[in-house]
Please model this.
Amino acid sequence: MTQTMQLVCSQCRAETHGAKFCPECGHRTAQQVACRACSTMLQPGTKFCTECGERQ
Model:
């Protein structure tokens, strides 16, 4: 299983190298969440699972 990581801060555009928080401004980077039904990794804010269609 692979997990996509955000490599650039959406707030200040600094390189984060997959860190949970930006090393420059402290902004929390986007972390994936697991589908409640099938555990597929999804982007935050996803309304329906891209694998099984379950409402999130």
Remarks:
- Strands lie at 33-34, 41-42.
